[in-house]
Amino acid sequence: MTYITIPLLILGLILLISGAEALIRGASQLAAALGISPLIIGLTVVAYGTSAPELVIGIVSNLIGQTDVAIGNIVGSNIFNILLVLGLSALIMPLTVSPQVIRLDVPIMILASILMLIASLDGVINRIEGTILVSGVILYTVFLIDQSRHETQDVKKEYTKEYSTTASATSSLTWVLNLALLGGGFGLLVIGSNLLVTNAVTIAEFMGISELVIGLTIVAAGTSLPEVATSIVASLKGERDIAIGNIIGSSIFNILAVLGVTSIVANGIPISGQTLHFDIPVMIAATVSCLPIFFTGNVVSRWEGALLFSYYIAYMVYLFLLSSKSIELPIFSSVVLGVIIPLTILVLSLSMIRAIRKQVYNME
């Protein structure tokens, strides 16, 4: 590790975020110029575009032999999205959840997470399993486009306000500029991902931290910054469908598309014991927790956002204690598993029962 390692890592992060932003802007404007509705742009181009860093990081990491960084980035990004990004967004402004998210998108996110666990049981996610995952994201995207025709006017106005374009977008100059944004954004993603992965691994080796932990923390947080910006800004603007849709859509895309494409390109991704027995179960627990939280009154309240955020802090503390081989780790694990998690399950169960009783009472 040299004195320029950290500056290069930060530069890679900046290039990665800038590339994602340019890619999203260029693709959104081109899609709008082609007559694609702002709603579909928001549901597909933007939600998937914010996951472009994870995709490039996954492919680059595998090509240079850093497979732990690749899988850690995917799992860590989903944990980051749900616990931290959703938690912070709800802390800023309670988020109203649409019925489709509860009935369809969250169950698909949970199913995708379970599929990842099943595919990982033999210690590797191979090309065939990757192809199945990619087929899933194609079907999901087609379904989203079909569903967008039935969205309410309020949702359509929200996406139109955020992702609409002007009539001048069809001019030749604008086409050239948007294509330049698209190409330039992709180039920045590739350069930034190389810098980020290479220097993150250098730091991990210097500090004695595993590449997996670096992928779960620094790389995952860095590649998820587009989701942070999109969801928090949307929450501040009151555009709650965009805030939640971006988080859930990106989490689904990370597993089905990023993991699927990466495993196809790399001819399989090896899964470590820690990832299989701890990190993937944590990711599944985070996704499953969305269902009761979203279900209770169709709102993610501030206290629920604080709960999600506090779990992310607990997860970071666990990774720190694990990587430092701290003697406090067994105590911390016992408190979390024996006290905090059971209390959370109890509180969420009571909230769900109360919500169900309210719905039954209203039906009567």
Descriptive notes:
By secondary structure, this protein is mostly helical. It has a single domain, classed as NCX, central ion-binding region (A middle domain of Talin 1), CATH 1.20.1420.30. 82% of the residues lie in helices and 2% in strands. It contains 14 helices and 4 strands. It has a two-stranded antiparallel sheet. A two-stranded antiparallel ribbon has the order 2-3. The longest helix has 36 residues. The model has no long low-confidence stretch (mean pLDDT 80).
Low-confidence stretches: none
| Helix percentage range | over 70%
DSSP strand (E) fraction? under 5%
**CATH second-level architecture:** Up-down Bundle
Q: What is the class in the CATH system?
A: Mainly Alpha
Largest sheet: 2 strands, antiparallel
The CATH topology turns out to be A middle domain of Talin 1
Give the H and E element order.
HHHHEHEHHHHHHEHEHH
